[in-house]
Amino acid sequence: MKVATQVIEQLISLIDREGLKNGDRLPAERHLCERLGVSRTALREALQQMNSVGITESRIGSGTFVKDVQTIKQRQPLEALSDNLILQTLTPLLDADPLYRLDVQEARIVLEGGTAWYAAQRATKQDIEKIRFYYEQLANSQAHGDTEQAAIADANFHLAIAEASQNAVLLQMMKNVFHLLRHNVVLARRKIYTEHYGFETLHTQHMAMMNAIIARDSELARKAVGEHIEFVIKQVAKIDEATARRQRVSRLATDVF
């Protein structure tokens, strides 16, 4: 995790812990650096990012003030704000560069194949309940047409499997790429769900992953994850190619007429 992102989380915790309201002034930079144990450069970068999404507002000669405390008080505020800040930078790259999205998916095959392998061996009853919870939440959200919540549940489903691996390093690696994972899931699902059979196929694949873990079959769990992500890669590539083809034909038709 970038230093600035860590500082953002510390600042949000401070705002929340001290009950600061909209319009309240944050402590001076020097005091914040001392309290958080960070450099002034890291603090300024964090504040700049918070200002950019409207959480705080810096006024020349006056300091930095809380501007949108409601966002901070939302459910899982640190995660929500981190997503917003990180995706401001990543969204243009992920949207514009299919190869970068492919890199994320390939990394998922390697990383999540390993977490699924160990999850099948080590998942506790509570772990399995959590995996099942997000599986059902995913299915329910999609059935009601809420694709954004379905994407979040999808990402949480994969993260729950990583937690069930009981491997601190693998879990930390998953958390470090969780923002990439969530955004990549959103992009992929928007494309795949334009196809009629997309929901049923992904639903079946998620069920296979969950059932393999419940059955304590490590090899089957790893295989299910790999097949799922490879399917996503192929389907997104196919849809991208079809979209590009239609755009070429459309431009040609415009030029002719």
From TrEMBL:
One of its GO terms (molecular function) is DNA binding. InterPro entries: GntR_C, TF_FadR/GntR_C, Tscrpt_reg_HTH_GntR, WH-like_DNA-bd_sf, WH_DNA-bd_sf. Residues 1-69 form the HTH gntR-type domain. Pfam families: FCD, GntR. Keywords: DNA-binding, Pyruvate, Transcription, Transcription regulation. PANTHER family: TRANSCRIPTIONAL REGULATOR, GNTR FAMILY (PTHR43537), UXU OPERON TRANSCRIPTIONAL REGULATOR (PTHR43537:SF5). This is FCD domain-containing protein.
